Predict the 3D structure of the following.
Amino acid sequence: MCAVRYWRAAEPKTTYEVVIVGGGGHGLATAYSLAKRHGITDVCVVEKGWLAGGNMARNTTIIRSNYLWEESAAIYEHSLKLWEGLEEELGVDVEFSPRGVLNLAHDLGEVRSSMRRVHANRLNGVDAEWLTPEDVAAFCPLINISPSLRYPVLGATLQRRGGTARHDKVAWAYATRASELGVDIVEHAEVTGFLRGPGGRVEGVSTSRGEIRGAKVALAAAGHTSELAAMVGLRLPLQSHPLQALVSALYEPILDCVVMSNKVHVYVSQADKGELVMGAGIDAYNGYAQRGSFHVIEEQLAAAVELFAIFAHAKLLRTWGGIVDVCPDASPIVGWSGIDGLFLNCGWGTGGFKATPAAGWAYAETIATGEPSELVRPFSLERFTTGALIDEHGAAAVAH
Amino acid sequence: MLLIRCPWCGPRDEIEFRYGGQAHIAYPADPDALSDADWADFLFMRDNPRGPFRERWYHVHGCRRWFNAVRDTSTHRFVATYRIDEEPV
Amino acid sequence: MTARRLPDGGSWIDRSRPLTFRFDGEEYEGFEGDTLASALLANDVTGGFRSPILGRPRGIMTAGPEEPNAFVEVSQPWFDPIVAATMVELVDGLVAEPRAGVGRLPSTRVPSRRAEHRHISVETLVVGGGLSGRTAASAAASRGDRVVLVDERHRMNDAPDDVIGLPRTTALGIYDDGYVIALESTPELERLWHVRADHVVLATGATERPIAFAGNDRPGVMLSTAAAVYRRHFGVKVDEAPALITTNDVGLVARAMVMDGGPEEGPVINFQIDPISDELPTDGSLLVSGGFNPNLTLWRAIGGTVEYHRRFACFVPGKGPPWLKVAGMANGEHIPDCAPVWYVDGERTTAFVDLQRDQTVADIADALDAGLTSVEHVKRATYIGTAIDQGRTSGVLTAAIVNQMLGTGPDAQGPTSARPPAVPVPYTTIAGPDRGDLLDPIRRTRIHPWHEEHSAVFEDVGQWKRPRYFPRTGEDMDAAVARECLAVRSAAGVLDASTLGKIEVIGPDAAAFLDRMYTNRMSTLAVGSIRYGFMLGLDGMVADDGVAMRLADDRFFVTTTTGNAAMVLDRFEEWLQTEWPELHVYCTSVTEQWADVAIAGPKARDVLGALGTDLDLSPGAFPFMTFRDGAVAGIAARVARVSFTGELSYEILVDGRRALELWEALLRAGNAIGITPYGTEAMHALRAEKGFVIVGQDTDGTVTPDDLGMGWIVRKDDSDFIGRRSLRRADTSRSDRKQLVGLLSDHLLPEGAQLVEEDTGRTPMATIGHVTSSYRSPSLDRPIALAMVARGRQRHGQTILAPLPGSTIAADVVSPVFYDPEGARHDG
């Protein structure tokens, strides 16, 4: 145990080449990638609280890449490939567990959009299978495929390479390796403003631990992005909502895959320790209090016990809330902000965790070169003006 | 379960309502006169403050009237609700 | 160490009611009012439990929800996979066995308690039935409040007058605006209370915390107040002369109570006097008091802050929401002065901090050595505080040890947050009554009973049940659908179209309003006529379609798709109320009032005539896209000549209460010509033969009218409508957008299949579109499909490919109108 050595708590210098705002998964993966792939080690990650204490500590860790549109499939599939090599890359067991992700379909409309997604995934090089209800039962015998359910299971898509990982280990591994490469990680430094230069150029940040200058400032602050952007007069197509998740008490292993049902808002896997980890639906209103409303949990568990009779006696142990920033088309924004010196990575909604490796990879390239990485080029802020949205909820509404 | 004071019906549970996002975003008088960027601004760009926020709610399972509210997004606490035809508080 | 039940005493037990129970295969006796834990102690069962990871022997350590050791599975008379023995109310016939940290979910049916939900609204809710809670409840009641007082214990001292007392009820979580979820758990049922209160008082008391020292997890170690509770309320003496290690005077008082004030025997280590301890007793009964933590889980969950109190060595409430107060020990009142001793240095690897996670002082030290400095990180590295008790005994201790080891002040970091629910709750209890068909309301048409009697197979469309097809004996879906389609094309079919959304739009500005909502102009529609219309989102994408009938100058009847009925009405209201309050328009949903039966097919007019109607059905008098009010089969009806099949078709709208009568009359009248009920599947195939789109199937929120080849439906004048401005954005006006086409292929194309120009056999493969609808056309006796394909309208005549696993289907791009392209059939 004592052989483990985590990141070094740094005192901030006055000036860096790149200042990353937000010490969550994306910020840390970006810092690591800047240092490792682009040789830019003069990097500071400023985090207002404790490292990886935001959505990184609060998500349900589902990893998959079976998105409908090719732009989404490209970045999430790149991410999945990075997940598959992450233990080797970082030298840390992040407990990536490709146990298979099922997306259930409960009406003919969902069957159609699921089939479309399977066909699209296959041509995009994303593994995808369609399972009939009987196949679903064979793959995951716990699922109730009775036709008498209020919304019976009519089938499911399966991505066998999808799964889960241990969120803390991921963040800490990125932080530790970035730190070893020279990146400064500064916790408990809240950004209170931006330093502006000629023409309004962003040249650094004011923080609760003093001013930190950076030739480039990159936001990776998820639900708090709008607040930060407002400090430089930038409005974004983002709304921050509570998103709740929950775990049960510990139970002997019963569920060895990830099951998602968008229709009835059930997203569940069982952690190695034994708790059932579930994500709930998004609360409708804007909120920064990291809590949601209990009826959301009630509706979700009502649906869960219909789908999984064995869950009836499972006990809810803890619920909590995170803050997700959501774009109108349920796709992220990554790239230049339109203000010199300032870069954006936000709007991942419920997809942030699974995107962590690729978001860091592509955001770092975008920051390093000043040109959007091919992976994120479609996810520019400009798409809201041209109308070239990447509408992931219009066609194949699959959150998380 | 927020408690929302409908200006017509009084305080009711959140599940009777639908959220309507930021308030006082007026439909442009002449959309044709707007540039694509200005139109995108109307369509998509929204305030998203941590703190007091003017927003719209719809009492969909009640009087079916839209109204406005000021709510602190950092505490979820309502500061005020007011009718569509009332001046912002 | 010998625990025993004293011959008398025990304020919570009823010695006149003995109970028998089984634990770990042995039969024991207890009394009504016992918990399983008190009954076990009464029988001198002080151990028998194991720690979850290290398998170390453990005993009962507490008397409440903070218990970290004594977990059991209850199998009779109800099932509970894992619960603290201190929280199990003893009943006759109870069967339990120890469980070490991890429960087992049953795959077979097990006995359950009834689950129900209750809602109550009061002025004041008090959580905690101790002295301060009862005082607060009395005070609120005396000023006229309706008051609910909940207490987690199964015996609560009598609730004050005019107070609704709920014993056995644990407040699980506090939410915004005084909303509290509480669990009432009795041997018969589990009831989830939803309490809305103007004021909430937390009188949740304080929990004694242990001290970390080598071997502090062995059986026989018990919190001092727990031993006092067992003595006082259950008449159980855990030992004649237990040893004590304490940081405060309450520990001394508790020990004296256990010993009935008897002579001081056994070692007592009091850190207030002697900060350097003597040897700690390594066996026998040992009472521990490390100080008291106000129970502030609920307080913190709603955003309440805490402050460190040096004299009490604990965290007390700071600021919280205005409607929430804290009283009594939870508020830092009556907390004894306490020596700030958190752990006794020595062998750290057996000095347990979180017994339920088997985590020790050494584990914390390791995490700090590795460079972690935040309590939150220590929690995540060790999992301290994440077990069933959620850190009730370990939370403050861990933070204090971290602070001490880092050399920061005792207030530098506080404990991590416990999260709701305060105690674990079964999923079924939370689900409550929303089970089975009650998960979501089911909507059925007035004709539904007939459909059921005639073996309809239903599909879910929104909340509606719609007949998908009506198989006859021996028919599969394909055969049934083919028969239904051919009947419509050759004779007549009837469809229950009652689920369509229907809205009356009334008022002097109704026409002007609809002009703004639809892409085509509704204000020029003549009274008695019908127009098909598209509704776009502000983003210019097709959102819904339907028809508008003009009933009068100031009165329209519009239809929506089944799934979007509520959305469309809400949208109307939103625009009318928030943007155009100057428009005098009223919108009323009439979906449920009007039933709608479509009769379609070349014989439709004959059937209607045979049925008897006062309407002149001749094409000249009753042309396509008009409607007439009259009587059909003696029923007042509004008959509309619209067609979603391409055939001569009438939609007959009648009072819902007479729908079944109409339906049966139609079937009788059409019996001679072979009239056939058809379902949604045949309806979809028939409309696909005609190239009519289904919003939500052929569109996906990214499709404009022009993409569908329906640019004609978008008016070209200067007047505005919703979505108009978006249509000329760069991406929306691209010339290479995907467009609706028809596809002809030898094999049936799967819906959703992706389309390419060239099958490279490699991924990623560049796609040009996808199949949106696909059927084996009964009328044409061949596969047909609709697809969205980039530059599709320029590709008519080209062959494109659908690469599938194991095969590739070639398809010719054609017009989407496969059947009767001249449109000759809708007049019959």
